[in-house]
Amino acid sequence: MRKLPQFNFSEGFYIWFNPEAKEEYYSTPMYLYKTDTYNDMDNHRRKIIQESDFYKHKPSKKESAPKHPTSIYVPYYEQFGLFLISLLNADFSSFDSAYDTFFYLYGFELLKEYVPYKELEKTYSSEDALVKIMKRVYEDSLEELIEVQHNFKEFVDFIYNLNGNGKLKESKINSKFVSFLITHQNDVYTYSSDIEVILDTYSNKHEEYYKYSLEELTKQLDENDSLIKMTNVYTSEKLSNIAFVVLEQIVKNYNLPIKTCQYCGRYFIPSIRQDELYCDLPNRDGKSCREKGAKQTYRKNLEKIPALLEYRKAYQKKFMEVARSDNNKKLKKDFDSWKKLEQSKIRDYKQGKVTEDELYKWMIESK
What we know:
Structural class: alpha+beta
Number of helices: 11
Number of domains: 2
């Protein structure tokens, strides 16, 4: 039976899940090209952070692009399901976009399925030398990457009724998941065949809890008998297999559906409520789709609701009067009082305490 690596290792990909905390964890060696890590050592974990520089912390000239080993005991962490979501949303149209949307997070270990280059195990003498081999790996695996991504998109769209796929819309997610695989609707059924499950054991917990004495750990368990969670770890040498494992875990958790963002169109898993319309995935301008979508909805509401349009017109007029008043404190105070009162009326409208006609009449009379 295969066991987890007990120390730092330089080969392989391991992933496991905590649906209650809505997190997944993975360990794999990384080159950390244009990335850094946020180290949450209190919780024995790290998060990959994208950077603009080649290396934020420059290594020695002798080893300017080393492959960094990893540890099971201090894994990378991210939102539950993000591995699959990142694959679905990845832009594989160029090396740079493929790296920026997927490979900076997960490295190249899982591409050895397609391009088993020995060069991936080396330390590189420069950024150019590293990028050259990474581009070669990207180019030689591109056809398979696009096929895997396409197959998962088709599968996910069917299961969650996305992008116009309403087939068997009333059926259970799990039923659709299983029947799709068994009836071989596309090649995803082949992605479940080379996955190893490493069962958790109490001996694996020593590294995490070795600082506790027998008495201390017993007391902690008396107070919280779920303190020590037994979590199975999945490993494979294939990108398609790891993505399958993640999708299977998502399907098992009905409270974490996959959706498409109504602002950007990307796949996402709601982080707070199941009925969320907009994702929290990063955008180049630093603003989330949740923020952008709320503003878009607000503007649409202005066009539909005359009372809100009147409020916006009055607000802009009064705001400009204050801005041009050369710091007139009374005018500023009156504006703040008016704004506070108007917004309270808008809240009453949203809560159903006043009608749209009543709100409109108020806005006209209070200009």
